[in-house]
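About this split. The held-out portion is used to measure sequence recovery: a designer receives only the structure tokens and must propose an amino acid at every position. Recovery is the fraction of positions where the proposal matches the reference. Here is one held-out target exactly as it appears in the evaluation file.
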């Protein structure tokens, strides 16, 4: 194998696929990145057998072939090279020469033939969604994915696609995040699959803030995201996701309209003291025209007041401040609704116009 590429093309390609490199595998070859040159294409591949990323880069092909190089070594090496053309060539024993300007390195690689192939997802039915929309949908739900693996299905997010509607749902037993959007799919095509949180995190890092399309397709127990010259293949989580629609209350007894930023800032300030306690507790008193937020800790107490428009009954309720802050941080609207039923029922956060997001947060029971 022998290729010549610009340093930037190589580095960007390696950094993209490196996200799938296994950090603790019993197979040493999974700690490497495959460079495969065939059919006039240069392909970089990494996988941990759960998620696989392949990316095609531009360059001059002098000889076809393949090699697997240590991810850590090759990425650090390319990063420190001068901004110039880089030549990579291998011999029949996978010894690899890397030359750039006046620098030359020789490292031992592994056979590309030993690298596991990524699962093939060649379903002709593809759904398209703008990159920026999918990136925002992930950002606005991923924080609610469960971290603990006591219920493995909750370590992923449910993606549902029906006709031209797409939704992403994540919950961890304490809060729920739901984000909706539109796809270009107008056929009678339905997807309801749970995608690992890690996969969504890595996809989000690859997506850009533009309207270029991502193509999504599924085959068997794998899903494929095609983003420009990069393909991300992931294993899907098996099991039945919670029926989230039953969890979200359809009615409320108290609804508050208020400034998202004012509420977010007050919650953050109250959390400075709340974090000193066991459960980040903040208390809320909903009055006719004011929301009062308080927090007491051994080191002191805080009192915040925010103007609101209240519909329905006044209410006292308490929450873990962390869950509110993470939801509010990812809402882009200037004003929001907070909906309540009782002091021991969830709070629902909604936009004042439309239904494109819903957040649900369980309260903390407080003995007065």
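Reference sequence for scoring:
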């Amino acid at each position: 194998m022998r290729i010549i590429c610009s340093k930037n093309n190589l580095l960007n390609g390696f950094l993209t696929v490196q996200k799938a490199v296994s950090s603790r595998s019993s197979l040493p070859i999974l700690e490497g990145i495959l460079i495969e040159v065939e059919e006039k294409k240069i392909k970089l591949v990494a996988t941990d057998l759960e998620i696989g990323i392949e990316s095609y880069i531009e360059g001059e092909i002098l000889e076809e072939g393949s090699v697997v190089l240590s991810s850590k070594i090759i990425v650090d090496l390319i990063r420190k090279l001068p901004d110039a053309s880089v030549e990579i060539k291998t011999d029949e024993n996978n010894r690899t020469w890397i030359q750039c300007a006046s620098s030359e390195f020789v490292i031992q690689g592994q056979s590309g033939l030993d690298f596991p192939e990524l699962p093939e997802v060649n379903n002709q039915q593809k759904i398209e969604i703008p990159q920026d929309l999918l990136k925002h949908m992930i950002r606005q739900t991923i924080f609610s994915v469960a971290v603990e693996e006591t219920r493995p299905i909750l370590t992923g997010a449910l993606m549902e696609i029906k006709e031209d509607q797409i939704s992403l749902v994540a919950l961890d037993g304490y809060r729920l995040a739901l984000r909706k959007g539109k796809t270009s799919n107008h056929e009678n095509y339905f997807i309801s699959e749970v995608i690992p949180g890690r996969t969504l995190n890595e996809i989000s890092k690859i997506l850009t803030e533009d309207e270029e399309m991502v193509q999504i397709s599924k085959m068997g127990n794998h899903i494929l995201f095609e983003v420009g010259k990069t393909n991300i293949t992931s294993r899907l989580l098996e099991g039945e996701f919670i029926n989230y629609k039953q969890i979200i209350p359809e009615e409320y007894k108290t609804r508050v309209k208020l400034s998202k930023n004012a509420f977010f800032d007050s919650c953050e300030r109250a959390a400075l003291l709340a974090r000193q306690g066991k459960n980040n507790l903040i208390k809320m008193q909903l009055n006719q025209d004011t929301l009062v937020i308080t927090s007491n800790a051994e080191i002191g107490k805080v009192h915040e007041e925010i103007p609101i428009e209240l519909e329905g009954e006044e209410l006292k309720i308490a929450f873990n401040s962390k869950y509110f802050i993470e939801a509010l941080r990812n809402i882009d609207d200037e004003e929001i609704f907070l909906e309540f039923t009782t002091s021991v029922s969830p709070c629902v956060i909604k936009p004042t116009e439309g239904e494109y997001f819903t957040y649900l947060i369980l309260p903390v029971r407080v003995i007065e």
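Annotator remark: The domain at 2-114 is CATH 3.10.150.10 (DNA Polymerase III; Chain A, domain 2).
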